[in-house]
Design brief:
With 402 residues, the protein is of the alpha+beta class. It is 31% helix and 18% strand. The protein has a five-stranded antiparallel beta sheet. Strands 1-2-6-3 form a four-stranded antiparallel beta sheet.
Length: 402
Amino acid sequence: MALHYVTAGESHGPQLTAIVTGLPAGLPLTEDDIARDLARRQVGYGRGGRMAIERDRGRICSGVRSGLTLGSPLTIVIENRDWPNWQEVMSAAPAADDAESKARAVTRPRPGHADLPGVLKWRQHDARNILERASARETAARVAAAAVARQLLAEFGIEVFSHVISIGDATADRSGLTWAAIREAAESSPFRVGNRAYEEAMKAAVDRAAAEGDTLGGIFEVVAAGVPVGLGSCMESAARLDGQLAGAVMSIQAIKGVEIGLGFEAAHRPGSRVHDAIYFDREHPERYLEGHGPTGGFYRTTNDAGGLEGGIANGEPIIVRAAMKPIATLRRPLPSVDFESKEAYQAAHERSDVCAVPAAAVVGEAAVAFVLARAFLEKFSGDHLDDVRAAYDGYVRYLNSR
C-alpha cells in the first residue's frame, strides 16, 4: 500500500486528527518526534493570538507499540485547547434554538478566503461551516503526519529543511552561504531567514503592515538533501516527482506559486545557462555539491534543475520555492456583501496573523517530506524497515558498481 495520510477536524472543534497508512513496521517513533515539528510550526514573528492559546502536542493513538511502528494505520490526535470556548458554537448536536443559531451565523464572506465559494458550493447559510475546515489550523495535522515521514527519511540520511527568502519587499541575500549555515540561522531566527542580517528589515516590514491593519506574504524555500538518484518516474505523468511536489506545496493554504530550481528564471535564460553539466568521479566526493545523494559517482557543479530532471530525482539537493499571498483576514477589512441579505458590508474579521511566512515554510517542509517519503517507499518497498533498508542498500551497491 502506498504511503498516504488524511486529516480531519475543524479549527475550533475538539481536535485535529491525522491518519497515516502505508508505513513499514519497525520505524522508531515517539510523540516527542512529532512535537518538535508542531512546535516549529507555531513560532515566527507576526503570528496572531491563536498561537498564544494552542500548545500543540500530537498524541499517538494507534499504529505504534514500544516506540516502533507496527505497519498498521497510525493515528495522531492534536487536541484544540481553545475548544472549551467553542463547545456550544461547534456542537455536533442539533441546534436547540434555530433563531439563535441563525443569529450567530457568519454571513459576511471575507475576500481571499473560501467563505463565499464554499457557501455556494455546499449550499450553506453559515460560512463557519466552510471556514472552520479551510483554516490553516488544519496544517497542524499535516505537519504531524509528515513528522512521521521525516523519521523515515532520516533513517536514510535524507534531511528536509526550509528558510524564508522574503517577507513583503524585504528580501534576504543568501549568496555564498552553505546549506548548513542557512539551516542553522533559519532555525534560530524568528523570521526563519537564512541570513540573520536581514531580520531588522523583515521586522520593520511586518510592524509597518500591522500598524496599518494590513498583512504580508512572502517567499520560502524548502531544501531536501541526501535524496538518492531515481525517485519518481518519467513513465507516467502522475508519477513525476516534480508534479507531486508542486501539487503538495500548492495545496497549502495561501500558497499561490511554486517553482523548482531556477523556476521562472529559466524562461529568461538561454539553455546554456540553465542545464547542469554532468561529470563523473567516484573517488573524490568533495567535488560534489553540498547535500548530494547517492548517484554512483555522477555529479554536477550547478543545480539549476533543483535536483529534478524529467520528473526524476537526479541526486542533487531538491529545491522547491513557494510564494505565499498575504493573510486574507484584515483588521482593516475590505468591502464584501452579506450573502443572505445581499447588503454591502465590511468583511467579518476572525482572529488572524499579520504574517505567517515562517510557519508556512515549516508546513512546506512537511509537504515535501511526505511526498519524498512516499516516493522512497515506492522505490524501496518493504513490510519492515529492515526490508526497506536492504532494498536501499542493494540499490546503492548497484549504483557504485556501474
